[in-house]
Model the fold of this input.
Amino acid sequence: MIELNVNGKQVAIAAEPDTPLLWAIREHLELTGTKYGCGSGFCGACAVHLNGKAVRSCQTPLAQAAGASVTTIEGLSPDSSHPLQKAWIAEQVPQCGYCQSGQIMKAAELLERNPNPTREEIVSHMNGILCRCGTYNRIIAAIERASGEG
Amino acid sequence: MADNATINTSISRRSFLGGAAGLTFAVAVGPGRGWLISAAEAKTAVHEIGAWVRIASDDSITIITPAAEMGQGSMTGVPIALAEELDADWSKVTLEMAPAEPEIYGYMNRGRKRMQIAGSRAVRSYFQPMRLAGAQARKVLVQAAAERWGVDVTTLTTEPSVVVDKVNGRRLSYGEIAGFAEVPAAMPAVTADELKKKSDFRLIGKPVDRHDIPEKVNGAAVFSIDVQLPGMVYASTVHAPVQLAEPEGWNDAEVRKLKGVVDIVKLERGVAVVADTFEHVLAARQALNVSWTRGAAAEGFDSERALSEDYAAIAERHEATATPVNVTGDVEAAFVNAARVYKANFRSDYGYHAQMEPLNGVARFNEAGDQVEVWEGTQAPGSSREKIAEALGLQTSQVIHHQCYMGGGFGRRTVTDYTIEAALIARSIKRPVKMIWTREEDLAYAMFRPQSYQCVEAALDEAGKISGWRHCVVGDGQNLLTAGIKLDEYYGIPNQLVELRGTSHGIRVKHWRAVAHPPNIFAIESFVDEMAAGENMDPLAFRRSRLAMTPRAQAVFDLVERMSDWGRTRPEGRALGLSVTERSGSVGAGVVEISVDRSRGKIRVHKAWVAVDGGIIVQPEMARRNIESGVVFGISSVLKERATVKEGTVMQSNFHDYQLLRMVETPEEIHVEFIDRDSAPTGLGEIANPFIGAAVANAFHALTGKRLYHMPFTPERVRQALEA
Ligand code: FES
Ligand code: FES
Done:
């Protein structure tokens, strides 16, 4: 049993310490908003916050999250009211939507640290998260919108 | 925007039709019918019936949407046409996903009803039937209100979800009417000329939010990979390194001893490991050691050698069997009488769909083993259901199909091999299962856009006009190679010979966003540009004066010329390139502005302008985003994406060696404009990516004086071209 705090709740997960946090979250806790894209650290679809820092959950062993606090897309806000979620809807960002949890979690980390990022800062922060549907410019627009309002 | 954005994947026809108070309009099976029928007709119908739209007394309206959603917005775009003619208040509309019953919910295509969402077909196929259905339902509501008030129907009008009696100052909401009215025994007929005029549209052409977006920002959207069932176990299939080889044996006892392993299932083309958790599946996969049959067709195949050497030889070998694709006029004569002749060859590598969601399916059998439920994301729910049944030796009716959102489709998901595997595994282990291909598996067992070789020749007459065109395509993929050479859609060339010289490699190939257009348009429009340079003309001026442009092509060229300010000189180190394309009934022209990092061999696209004639644009904002997506997809494939096969084995394994475009490489500006038309909508999802190859190559020539003949334009190829 490995204990950690996920989205404000204390949970115990019956899995080996080397289980990727991704599968612990998705399949053990059934928080399926966090996505599997490559399993190898290349795409960022699996991004969650570990003690406030965006990490690739497919590359994070569960043991590393023991006692830590994890936030997933489901825990970003109770009702889609995070400025980024509102901006994502206003800009109609998602296409297929599969990468978007990772995009939003990565963007949330940015605004946490830097409430008014420049376009260059946005691009360099977000560059690791792939979007096959090519929504990149809409993502930038949504982050700019959220930072303006945030 | 409709709140309550749920995608109900399991609506029951009976519950919908026999539901609570309100008006339900049904649709019946029949050739080419998009018409509504009444409940009375439904009861006596010998055919299968299904619901299209339901109006409840609380004013809520439910519309069945038949269009699978993979990010293009069709699940919203299609029902908007119905809501428009119904004059529905869109904020009161909820959408439900149609069940996989093409006989009821399909559109007519090549003699068959289909639900397949591919080839940018959703909006253009459903537009008219949905409008007629909406108009018919509206007629019923107005008629009912007229009877209640004792007035003539012609004195009544509608506002969103309200029937209005202007003369007497009365109003009845659709919900109020649904509370007392009944759908008449015989539905009123509606003809196309009773439909709204474009100027009267309230929803079509106006910004409407997509139905699926709210749940795509909070993790609630359900993709099949997210489905959870009680007692479910996990599986992943290992396929042969040489595609289509079959499993002979494996270290069964050893793998079965591993923690959590439930079973190991032999499939026709692979071996599936089943375990209690997905991490245990992954560990078992690692340990699994399969021996494969020898003699698969792909054995020994080397894609680079085939493309660099064999294809050219096949093109030159005149006795090689050619399949004519288009023969118009007298090509021989055009070349014999030519004043000048141009010739060039182009190549394109294999391309991978790389949809972000690795392919997967969830399946559960009933106790008796005579009924299976599947959850999947498919572009073709109707045929998928049939194919799953066929693979299991069941009737289609024994397959309960749940359509989920797709984490990208791009043409890959009209074939359902992944869900078939899930269903076979579930049957074998007698437990519900979620089967997920790892990314590595998804790529190794991919179905590629075929690699191809294009040999293009043109004859110019005395006046310098293009009088003859020969185009030979070589590769393995039949119509996946030649769809897309439709010069007549934009240029009039009197004498043409387009032919295919096929070969075969045993590598799985498939439709890929815009199918054969990207490699073909790359060849055609690069070649046209090369002729323009040969004739010392501006590329656009050359196209205008030497090619008989169709009016639609003229219009998009004019528009993109204006948008990009084509004639203006760009700053040092930047240049523009141009290309036209058609696809799915639409015509588009695009311009890109690029720079080149010569030492690193890297091309960067800074700006893109796209002008599209797509008929009536049902949802301009969605359409714009879909086209932007196509631009980025196009740049990604043209600059980076390359799959190769050696010894019959795919050489790439994940996103480090099959790279996709990243944010930092995306154009800072993408501008999309539409020609204002009042004609039926045509496809938009694949109008942008085909033009990128030639536009970038042409810009590269404008900047460096060198030509690129092989897609993708990898740094190595760019440096080679610069040195040439
Ligand atoms: S799934 Fe973790 S980086 Fe791709
Ligand atoms: S929206 Fe489809 S991958 Fe990003």
User: Anything to note?
Assistant: The longest helix of chain B spans residues 122-149.
